[in-house]
Amino acid sequence: MATLETDVLVIGGGATGAGVAWDSALRGFDTILVDRADLAEGTSGRFHGLLHSGGRYVVKDPVAAVECVEENAILRQVIPDCIEDTGGLFVVTPDDDPEYGDRFLEGCAKAELPTEEISVGEALKREARLNPGIKRAFTVPDGSIDAWKTVWALARGASAHGARILTYHRVIDLTVEGDAVTGARLRNELTGAELDVAARFTLNASGAWAAQIVKMAGIEGVGVIPGKGIMIAMNHRLVNTVVNRCTMPADGDILVPIRTVSVIGTTDIRAADPDEIPVTQEEVDAMLDDGERLVPGFRDARALRVWAGVRPLFQDEKAGPAAADTRDVSRTHAVVDHVERDGIGRFLTMSGGKLTTYRLMAQDIVDAMCRQLGEDRPCRTATEHPPDNEDGELYTLGSRLRRREANMQEEQLICECELIGRRKLEETMRRRGTTNLDDVRRSLRLGMGPCQGGFCIYRAAGILHGVDRLTGEEATESLRGFLQERWKGMWPILYGDQLRQARLDDWIFQGLLDVEHVPQ
Amino acid sequence: MSHHDVIVAGTGLAGLTAAVRLAESGARVLVLAKGVGATHLSPCTIDVLGYAPERVERPGEALSRVDGSHPYAAVGRDGVAAALEWFRGAMAETYPYVGSLDENLLLPTAVGALKPTAAVPETMAAGDLRGGGEVCVVGLRALKDFHAPLLADNLSRAGIAARAVELDLVPEGRADVNSLGFARAFDDPAFRAEVAAQVVARLGADERVAFPAVLGIADARTAWSELSERLARPVFEVPTLPPSVPGMRVAAVLRERLRRAGGRVILNAVVGGAERSADRVTALRARVGLRDVTHGCDWVVLATGGFASGGLELDSRWQAREVALGLPVSGVPDGERFRPEYFAEQPMARVGVAVDRSLRPEGHENVLVAGATLGGAQPWKEKSGDGISLATGHRAAEVILGSAVPSEPAGASR
């Protein structure tokens, strides 16, 4: 069996794990990042895209609020290409208590979160679709953040500093020698081959799946309460500013404009298993009603896709009883020191947290590792830029179109919705060496626009077949897999124009191409 | 207010079939349509019934076994046969079709499935691979909507000896040319000669030659037969992603027939409401630009399409409506509307307007419904879309032509 050696093994390829790998590689540690699937395929790729100002937490969770205030400012500097400066509004809807606004302002002052109360008229002028019945409005520096871009930028940055990124490598066991974790056994999920990693240190950044990893070290009593949240992407930017309900955090109270869509979120439902989080029709209905409260006419707008993510809310039996509502668990993070807690060394687990604070979380866990190793290597992620973020320019909505317009007739446009040209697509397919069109989707946003791959996915399957020299069987399997994956996110919201689109897509994939009956 | 014997709403295959059949029988016909029809999306192979749910070899026989709520149950096997015969006659001169209800042909799709279909344009007929064969698939690299190597690979897996040849010809020097752009290029004899010259030397003796369905738009017959001659082998077209060149050819033939028979077409006319007298519609209101225009009529053929074309809509509270006249829509399930597996039979698939045997919706004496607006079928899964449109469009015309009762209340102005 092959054995890899490294200083640091990072488990989990979400924003936290990629952030840890970037941090660790920047400090000069030889680093390996592993994930059982593709990067950002778990919680990071399934959130609403909100770069928190901290406003959401100022009343209920002041520590989390302060972290957000600081990290929001840092991320705008270090990963500007992943962030759009949309700004944010907290609005008191007709159903909310106007006095919460005063508590909100007090909380903002304590957290040093810059905010300003503006008149209802001014708020409606800025966001014409907002519910005209709102009673108060406050500005905050919310933004939107592209999780895939972020994770890929961090992973590429880590690679550039020598890290190895092993996607589709599942940890099937941790190696425990004496009172320390000394590495892990991995299984390549694509080939079935197993390999060992010998590591000086292992960092568990697997979020909602962290308890499963901890158990492999023979440690009991650490649990994760998977808090399921559903989100719906609407086909248009119904607002250009992040809109939050100014109330205690509840369901369906955030609308985030990101890229060409806006995303409403979210719910918080205790789930039994982080891998079993189906979206129900009732949840969709409730979310649409919540949207209606923020933006009247929401139900008449076109929904694009719905998905669920799962928060990594920790429950440590040694620390106290579980919270009744997953929303009452603090959104701050903590490094679980397994030496102190369990007498197991060279192994740390990140618990809790949220995407906005991924950098701080990475810093904290790598700092803790350095302390245990007795090495003094300062964190550099607050000032270093990962690739494509060096110019300091924040992402703007028209940037892809601007680049495309320069060479409109020089190359084929494969995905019209997301403006993806053939060269970029082929280059990404080659770089990633993947046979999976869904991986390409996450890297490029291929097939994520209004037609949900209706036109580009047959093209991409044909191109992938050529670029990767796939067999017809593999290419067709990839096409079928993509169709199933997109259907999963579409069927619960199929009404109005999106049903119309889905029927056109059925026409193409069933009536015209008959993908179902290509030989298996 | 103008007055017409028949107003046809919609200009897809169903609407055009009804309009042409009626106009050529002497009726004064007005077609109102929002835009060009779904012909421009459809490969315009006449898929009558391909799966039920196993693959259908003899569509004529299988027709008699469809469920009572299926549109074919209203038309009947003889009605479908009559429609197909009429259609072949209508297309014969310009863009002939081959095939019948006796046996389904098996034609390759652009991804390499073999799709059962009853009748196809002669430009596609050599693609019938029921008896096997050797195929060389010619691809055009600048056409992103057709991938020859993938098609050939999958055909090979189905036991057909197939391989791909790709050409780098680029009309007008553009990197991104869609199927219509290539079809215009193939109208040019010089372009065809260049294609033939690049392909002919690379062909095996027994190979037939597949092209994307872009072999000419103005005169496809000439383009196709000339290529067949130059290559000295059977040549056939395989439909591409939309826009559909074969669909445009069909629409052009039928539109021209309609024009010659005195029928009128108004596009950008969105039908939204009617004037009624008891169970009869006496006029349709259509929005043209910013104006509402009312057109009087004795009969209405409603062929505005299903959910894909906007003839039917479903709102976020799962209420379905027929958009033009507000006809009752049936079949929306109370419980599960969709299954989580994409290729499963979907409970929503059969939603549409329910009609009686003469295609009348409940409570409407002189309105007939044709095409994808009708419920009871799952056109793309069972491969019946264009078959239903053709059969019901034709049937609607027959009902009107065969109506013994005077078709209007006495005294209606003309």
Termini gap of chain A? 33 Å
Strand proportion of chain B, as a percent range, falls in: 15-25%
Residues in β-strands, percent of chain A: 15-25%
- Helical residue percent of chain A? 25-40%
Number of helices of chain B: 11
Q: Which oligomeric state applies?
A: heterodimer
Structure description:
The complex is a heterodimer of chains A (520) and B (414). Chain A contains 15 helices and 22 strands. Chain A is an alpha+beta fold and 520 residues long. In chain A, the strands form four sheets. In chain A, strands 5, 6, 7, 13, 14, 15, 16, 17 and 18 form a nine-stranded mixed sheet that branches. In chain A, strands 1, 2, 9, 10, 11, 12, 19 and 20 form an eight-stranded mixed sheet that branches. In chain A, strands 3-8-4 form a three-stranded antiparallel sheet. In chain A, helix 11 packs across helix 12 (437-444) and helix 13 (456-467) runs antiparallel to helix 14. With 414 residues, chain B is an alpha/beta fold. In chain B, strands 1, 2, 11, 12, 13, 14 and 19 form a seven-stranded mixed sheet that branches. A four-stranded parallel sheet of chain B has the order 8-7-9-10, with helices on both faces. In chain B, strand 13 and strand 14 form a beta hairpin. In chain B, helix 1 (13-24) runs parallel beside helix 9, helix 1 packs parallel to helix 11 and helix 3 (71-91) crosses helix 11 (385-401). The longest helix of chain B has 21 residues, at 71-91. Chain B is globular and about 70 Å long. In chain B, 56% of the residues are buried.
